[in-house]
Amino acid sequence: MSLVETDWLENNINKVKIIDCSWHMPQTNRIGFEEYKNHHIPNAIFFDLDNNSNKDTDLPHMLVKINDWEKIVSKMGIKKNDEIIIYDNSDVISSCRCWFNFIYFGHEPSLVHILNGGFKKWVSENKKITNEIPNIELSNYKSLEKKELVKDKEMIDQNINDQKFKVVDARSKERFEGKVPEPRKGLRSGNIKNSFCIPFNRCLNEDKTFKSKEELKMIFESCLKNINEKNIVFSCGSGVTACVLALAYSLINDKYLPCIYDGSWAEYGLIR
């Protein structure tokens, strides 16, 4: 159960940990934390996608070191056996990146969920919101990295020849085909050789809920042929929407654990 519905969360709101992971593309001039301070789902804790990334690199949203992750999650008061519901108020479904991070650092996948439709759906249904920041009792969170869930540039380059896994890019077709410039400066246009493109928003309905399993199967079958494959690696611009595809794929392949190219095009497309 990677997705939970708004009614389910409303009925279980005091039994789970709730995380607001709203992140917006820089050009939108929106700041997730400021929006969180104004209104959020009751009991929600804010997860800052930019601040909770590796500061030792210029690449955006890279995974932190394990000891840093333990400090981040401990400050959020989350324990190893907590059931976690993550949502966002973003057009790029940024909650999925937080979902991936928890799974990568060893939280039981069956305990980490995305709120289907996010904050927009919650508000549209007139469910309770607040500006009250919850008090947090610190925990002592311990992690275990699943390093097999991340690929680096060397692995991606090696795979061009070996073809041991398939790379699926979540960016738009125009960006993938190099027809439009990248939104980040210093990047060339184009794609990773032999990769496929499924724009992440193809997996979403207009209200930002995920499409049905039947629809998702058709979308992934259009490039993967066999939707039971486990050797699938997702990429995007900066490691956010790759996780949207990873979650969508996990909805139709329950044996799949999310695997991403962490550097994504922000690394691979660098003009050197």
CATH superfamily of the largest domain: Rhodanese-like domain
User: Measured on Cα atoms, how large is the radius of gyration?
Assistant: 18 Å
Global mean pLDDT: 96
- The CATH architecture of the largest domain can be named as 3-Layer(aba) Sandwich
Q: Find the CATH topology of the largest domain.
A: Oxidized Rhodanese, domain 1
Total DSSP helices? 10
Largest beta sheet, briefly?
Answer: 5 strands, parallel
Give the H and E element order: EHEHEHEHEHEHEHEHEHEH
Structural class designation? alpha/beta
Walk me through the structure.
By secondary structure, the chain is of the alpha/beta class. Helices cover 31% and strands 11% of the residues. The protein contains ten helices and ten strands. The strands form three sheets. Strands 1-5-4-2-3 form a five-stranded parallel β-sheet. Strands 8-7-9 form a three-stranded parallel β-sheet. Helix 4 links the parallel strand 4 and strand 5. Helix 4 packs across helix 9. The chain is globular and about 50 Å long. The N and C termini lie far apart (42 Å).
Present the secondary structure layout.
Elements: E1 3-4, H1 6-11, E2 17-20, H2 32-38, E3 45-46, H3 66-75, E4 84-87, H4 95-104, E5 112-115, H5 118-124, E6 150-151, H6 153-162, E7 166-169, H7 173-176, E8 196-197, H8 213-224, E9 232-235, H9 241-252, E10 260-261, H10 264-268
Parallel strand pairs: 1-5, 2-3, 2-4, 4-5, 6-10, 7-8, 7-9
Helix pairs in contact: 4-9, 8-9
